[in-house]
Amino acid sequence: MKHKTGSFILFLVKATLVFAIFAIFIFGQRYYYAGTLYYFWGNIIVILLYAAVLYMTSRIYNGFNYGNASIQEIITAWTLSFVIINVFQYFILSLIVNFLLPVRGFFYIFLAQVIVVIPMSILINYLYYRVNPAHSTILIYGDIEKLQIYRKMIKKQHRRFKVTGVISQHEQTGPLLDAINKVQSVFFLDVDEVKQEGLLEYCYLNDKHTYVLPSFSKILLNAASTIWLSNTPVFSLKKTPPDLATLMTKRLIDIVISLIGIIISSPIMIVVWLCVWLYDRHPAIYKQIRVTKGGRKFKLYKFRSMVADAEDDGVPRLTAKDDNRITPIGRVIRPTRIDELPQLFNVLFGAMSIVGPRPERPEIAQMYEEIYPIFVFRTKVKAGITGLAQIFGRYNTPPEEKLFLDIMYIESFSIMRDIKLMLQTVSVLLKPSSTEGIENDSTTALRQ
Questions:
Q1: DSSP label at 342?
Q2: What is the pTM of this model?
Q3: What is the pLDDT of residues 301-340, one digit of tens each?
Q4: Which of 301, 379, 383 is nearest to 342 (CA)?
C-alpha cells in the first residue's frame, strides 16, 4: 500500500467512524425524542454541543490513539466516551422538555455506537499498521541492566518497533552513526548526557524517530518557562506555586467530589463493611500510617482486604502476586478498587486530595529516599487517591518511574488537568493489571 494513498484511506475510514457516531445520535434523537427537536439552528446547536463533548471525551480517553494503544484499550476508550456523552446529552434534552425523558432511547443509541465502533476500530487499527509498518530500531544503552528491562518492554511493541540491534554508548562515534543510519528509530537508554546530545542532534538532522528515557532534569526542563536575555532564550526552572484562589478551588473540588462520592457509594460501603466483618469478625476498616504533604503522617482508611494478622511479623511489605494474605472478599474489592472508597473520608477531612501522588508508608518511603533522594519531592503536594502515576502506572511499577510521573504531575498542575485525570481514572478501573502485585519474594516495588 502506497503511503499517501494508505494515509488518505485511513483518514476516510476515521471520518466515516465519526460520521456514523453522529448519524446514530441524530437518528436516535429524531426517532425516540421527537419532542426535543428545534427548528434548524436549534438542532445545529444541539449537534455542535454533542460534537464538543465527543471531542473532549475522545481526547481525554484517547479514542483515536490507534497505533499507540491496544485495540481493547481503544474500544474501552470509545465506550467510556459514549457513556459520558450520552448521559450528558440525555440531561440536556430533558432540560429542553422540562422533564426526565425515558432512558431507553439513549441506551439504544449507546448500544448502536458501541456495535459500530468495534469493527470500525479493528479496521482502522489494521489499516494503521499497513500504512505505518514497524520501524527498524536500534537501542543505544549506557547501562546493561536497563537495556535488559526496556528491551523486553520495546519487544512487546513489536507492531511499532522491530529491534534490529543494540549498541553500547562506549562504541566509537563512527560505528554509532553507521548504526543510526541503518534504522528509522533510535532508543537512548540511560546514555551519558554529553554523548547523547551529539547523537540526538545527528538523529534530528537525519529525520530519525528518537526516544529518550526521562530523568529529573529533563522533566523539570519540560515544565520550564522561557525568558529572554536580550535576544537569547533562557529556561526558567523556578516553579511559581499555585495562587490562593487555585488552592481554594482545588480544596472545594475535593470537598464536593468526596461528599458526592460518599453519598453515592454509601450503600456499597455498608455492604462491603458487613461482608468483611462477617468473614472473620475482625475490624472491616484498615488504618495505616501514610505520608502526605510536607512529610506529615496521617491514618489512611481502607477496607481490609487481607487477613487481620497480615503483618504480625512487623515487616512492612507491599502486596505480592498471588498473595495468600488476601481474603476471598479482598480478591473482589481490590481489582475493582472498592477497598479504597473509605479514602473519600481522608479527602473530606483534608489529609488527602482527590488528585495527587499516592501516599507511601513512612518505612517504604524512607527506603526509596535512600536510593532516590529526590523521592521526597513528591511530598510538595498533598497525597491523592488518583493521579498521573496511578493512571499510567501499576501497583508494582518501580518507584523511580512512579516518581517521574508524580513530578510531571506536580510541575504541570492545573485545575483542568486535575479534572481530566479524574475522568481518566474510570478507565483504570477496567484494567485488572493496574492492581497487579509485586514479585512474591519482594517487599517493595524496587527492581530486583
A1: T
A2: 0.81
A3: 999 988 877 666 556 666 666 677 888 898 888 888 899 9
A4: 301
